Amino acid sequence: MSTVHQAFKRARWEYVLKHFNVSMDMESLDGLDNHFHKTSMDFITVDDAITSLVIDLSRKFELGIVTNGLYDPKQKLFNMGIGEIFSDDKVFHAEQLGYRKPDPLIYYKALEYFNREPSETLFIGDSWTHDVIAPMEIGMEAIWVNDKNVLPPTSHKPFAIVSDIAEIRNVLLGKSV
């Protein structure tokens, strides 16, 4: 692993742990990261409703993944049963790119790959800051998966707000859940 790549991973863990007022030395951060990677994928499994939704969406739309995840996104997609839908070049992973959401560069990287303008793109996610505000501020539409049923913290008006990812089927494909 390159020094830059390792420094990026450590900085991400430090950022997460800071919210819990926890700090660790570099060796402990590396140990936490290794343990996370060894155990986390055991909890990612196939959800038939999500698999069906993604397959149906892929028939009508070009799909990509933009993620800050602290994991191997390809392994997660494989464990979810949708790995074959997303080739490596359609997964934009902060850890590999060196910048993370909400940095506009990560969204522009995906737009460049798909040869799309922001106005031609819809971003879906569960983070108000990373998946609604940031994409909308560069000109994309957004769907917010608000599974915690909280009020939007800003005045941004996404394309849709859903309480469950399965509701996206009706929003984008016009079919009942």
Question: How are the SSEs placed, and which strands pair?
Answer:
Blueprint lengths: L2 H16 L7 H15 L7 H13 L4 E3 L5 H7 L11 E3 H4 L6 H11 L7 E4 L2 H10 L3 E5 L14 E3 L5 H6 L4
Parallel strand pairs: 1-2, 3-4, 4-5
Structural account:
This protein is mostly helical. It has two domains: 41 residues, no CATH class; 126 residues, Rossmann fold, CATH 3.40.50.1000. It is built from eight helices and five strands, in the order αααβαβααβαββα. The strands form two sheets. A three-stranded parallel β-sheet has the order 3-4-5, covered by helices on one side. It has a two-stranded parallel sheet with strand order 1-2. α1 crosses α2. 17% of the residues are buried.
Labels describing this entry:
177 residues, Rossmann fold, three-stranded parallel β-sheet, two-stranded parallel ribbon, 8 helices, 46% helix, globular, metal-binding
H/E element string? HHHEHEHHEHEEH
Q: What is the number of strand segments?
A: 5
Q: What name does the CATH topology of the largest domain carry? A: Rossmann fold
Output the radius of gyration.
Answer: 17 Å
Q: Multimeric state of these chains? A: single chain
Distance between the termini: 43 Å
Cofactor: Mg(2+)
GO biological process, one term: small molecule metabolic process
Protein name: HAD family hydrolase
Pfam families: HAD_2 (PF13419)
Short overview:
By secondary structure, the protein is mainly alpha-helical. The protein has 8 helices and 5 strands, in the order αααβαβααβαββα.
